[in-house]
């Protein structure tokens, strides 16, 4: 059984080289190094401190679109330079920092060396290499334009990464502020208000309504915090189970698209992702039926997935893609018109790329506007909450001072 070995070696100039390789034995590692003109200094089976914990940490490491873009870009450069697939994979294994990608590439290296096609070797790792990458590489192998396809994939993953980062950066600030505000309110209700509760209990003044409301909330939270936490956990579990169930997820996705603010934004993100992915696949030579099947797996919304399934069936029957998308009432008129023009002119990939550029710009503008609106809104809500707490505490104290004063 093949194992992963780490090695240290020197070349003829005395420069030190380190790397890792999937091989059947240490002898195979030595032969590999000799092929490169290296003199082996040390070979050991790969392992991480912590044993099993290290392996678990590697398996939990995520594969980001940025990592895939870097792999595709480097691979395209080496293929264009005339290196063989085996040599390219060997270099990538040494240079890739992501452990999950490195492990997957080691398996791909072994399969390719045994005579398996590159695309089929990639397909054996669906959690690392997405379907779009497998189909594009297959089209590149058939057409003999693997370097061009890999460059297009790199551009696709780079733009996908930028789109994801725009959304994440816009949501980070509100999420952090809201989380800190909730924690502060919980701290006040759980630890500060009980002190005032004992203070007000000995006073012979009638507490105003805001103070009574705040003390009631504080007492409930102090005595039944476990119940609140349990209800939140149950709610999260119910939502997760519902979202994993296809019938309920379809309803949730349909409702999400109709939400006042989030709905239009999520629709634009989905359309941008649909347009970019389909454009990349069509330009890479993937048949439209296969391309639609790949897009369905990357779109992320079942309502749009259902629309694309109907479009796929209609295209198989000879109906145009634009007319089918128009009947779904999910895609905007602009998308439908641009797809129709692309089909008529034979430049569907270019039209879809323009649609993707437009909606990615729209997402950027929408996210910026939402951020500028949400910041003062969150500050205003925090001001109201803190003001209510301050007033609820200060009014009884003023009443006490007034009653004590001569």
Commentary on this structure:
A three-stranded antiparallel β-sheet has the order 2-1-3. Residues 48-60 have low confidence and may be disordered. The chain has helices at residues 26-35, 52-60, 65-80, 85-95, 99-113, 118-123, 131-143, 146-201, 209-244, 246-256, 262-283, 288-298, 302-316, 321-328, 333-345, 348-404; strands spanning 3-10, 16-23, 39-45. It has 16 helices and three strands. The protein is mainly α and 406 residues long. The chain is extended. Helix 3 (65-80) packs antiparallel against helix 8 (146-201) and helix 13 runs antiparallel to helix 14. The relative contact order is 0.07. The protein folds into three domains: 3-47; 63-157, Type II secretion system (T2SS), domain F (Receptor-associated Protein, Up-down Bundle), CATH 1.20.81.30; 173-406, Receptor-associated Protein (Up-down Bundle). 76% of the residues lie in helices and 6% in strands.
List its traits.
3 domains; 406 residues; 3-stranded antiparallel beta sheet; single chain; mainly alpha; 3 strands; Receptor-associated Protein; 76% helix
């Amino acid at each position: 059984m093949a194992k992963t070995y780490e090695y240290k070696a020197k070349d003829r100039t005395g420069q030190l080289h380190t790397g890792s390789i999937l091989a059947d034995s240490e002898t195979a590692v030595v032969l590999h190094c000799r092929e490169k003109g290296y003199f082996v200094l040390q070979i050991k089976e790969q392992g991480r401190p912590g044993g099993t914990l290290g392996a678990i940490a590697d398996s939990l490491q995520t594969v980001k679109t940025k990592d895939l873009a870097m792999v595709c870009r480097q691979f395209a450069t080496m293929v264009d330079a005339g290196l063989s697939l085996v040599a390219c994979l060997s270099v990538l294994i040494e240079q890739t920092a992501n452990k999950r990608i490195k492990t997957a590439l080691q398996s791909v290296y072994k399969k390719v060396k045994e005579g398996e096609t590159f695309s089929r070797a990639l397909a054996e790792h669906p959690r690392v290499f997405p379907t779009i990458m497998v189909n594009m590489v297959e089209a590149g192998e058939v057409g003999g334009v693997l370097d061009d396809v890999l460059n297009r994939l790199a551009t696709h993953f780079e733009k996908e990464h930028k789109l994801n980062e725009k959304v994440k950066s816009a949501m980070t600030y509100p999420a952090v502020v809201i989380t800190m505000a909730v924690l502060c309110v919980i701290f006040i209700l759980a630890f500060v208000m009980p002190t005032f509760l004992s203070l007000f209990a000995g006073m012979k003044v009638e507490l105003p309504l805001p103070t009574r409301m705040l003390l009631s909330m504080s007492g409930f939270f102090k005595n039944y915090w476990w119940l609140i936490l349990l209800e939140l956990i149950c709610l999260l579990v119910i939502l997760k189970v519902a979202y994993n169930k296809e019938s309920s997820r379809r309803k949730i996705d349909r409702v999400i698209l109709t939400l006042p603010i989030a709905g239009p934004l999520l629709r634009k993100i989905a359309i941008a992702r649909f347009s970019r992915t389909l454009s990349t696949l069509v330009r890479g030579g993937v048949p439209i039926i296969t391309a639609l099947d790949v897009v369905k797996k990357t779109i992320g919304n079942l309502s749009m997935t259902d629309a694309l399934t109907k479009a796929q069936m209609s295209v198989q029957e000879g109906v145009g893609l634009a007319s089918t998308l128009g009947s779904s009432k999910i895609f905007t008129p602009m998308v439908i018109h641009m797809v129709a023009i692309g089909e008529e002119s034979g430049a569907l990939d270019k039209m879809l790329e323009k649609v993707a550029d437009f909606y990615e710009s729209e997402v950027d503008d929408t996210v910026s506007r939402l951020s500028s609106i949400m910041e003062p809104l969150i500050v205003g809500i925090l001001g109201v909450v803190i003001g209510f707490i301050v007033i609820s505490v200060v009014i009884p104290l003023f009443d006490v001072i007034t009653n004590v004063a001569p």
